[in-house]
C-alpha cells in the first residue's frame, strides 16, 4: 500500500485492519467514551461506525457512518467478529433490535 486509502485499498482487501487496535488503555477508554457520546448525541440506532483521529490532545471526530458496509471485507462485521459476535448472530441482533423484539445475546 502506498499510503493512500483509495478504492483499491478499501475494496480490494489489501488495507491492513487490526482488531482490536493496539492502543494504550487510556486512549481506548477515551475513544470508547467519545464514540458512545457521539452515537447517543446523534440519536443513532442499530449500527453506526464512529471514526476518530487519535491526536496528542485526544480523539477528534472524523465522521459518523450510519450505513457502514456489510460485505465480507467490510470493517463492521470484522469488528463484531473480533468481539465474539459472528455474522449470522450480528444480523439476528440487528433485525430483532429494528423490530423492537427482545435481544437474545449468547453467553
Describe this structure in words.
- The longest helix is centred in the first third of the chain and has 17 residues.
- The chain starts with 6 loop residues before the first helix and ends in an 8-residue tail after the last helix.
- The protein is 40% helix and 14% strand.
- The protein has four helices and two strands; from the N terminus they run ααββαα.
- The chain has 107 residues and is an alpha+beta fold.
- The model has no long low-confidence stretch (mean pLDDT 85).
Characteristics:
two-stranded antiparallel sheet, 14% strand, alpha+beta, 2 strands, 107 residues
Mind sketching the topology for me?
Elements: H1 7-11, H2 25-41, E1 49-55, E2 58-65, H3 75-82, H4 87-99
Antiparallel strand pairs: 1-2
Short note summarizing the structure:
Helices cover 40% and strands 14% of the residues. By secondary structure, the protein is α+β, with helices and mostly antiparallel strands.
The gross shape turns out to be: globular
> In order across it, which strands form the biggest sheet?
1-2
Order of helices and strands: HHEEHH
* Overall mean pLDDT: 85
Distance between the termini: 39 Å
- Please give the oligomerization state of what you see: single chain
Helicity range of the residues?
40-55%
Derived structural class = alpha+beta
User: Can you count the helices?
Assistant: 4
The radius of gyration is 15 Å
Range of strand content: 5-15%
> Describe the biggest sheet?
2 strands, antiparallel
Number of strands: 2
Q: Uncertain runs with pLDDT below 50, 5 residues or more? A: none
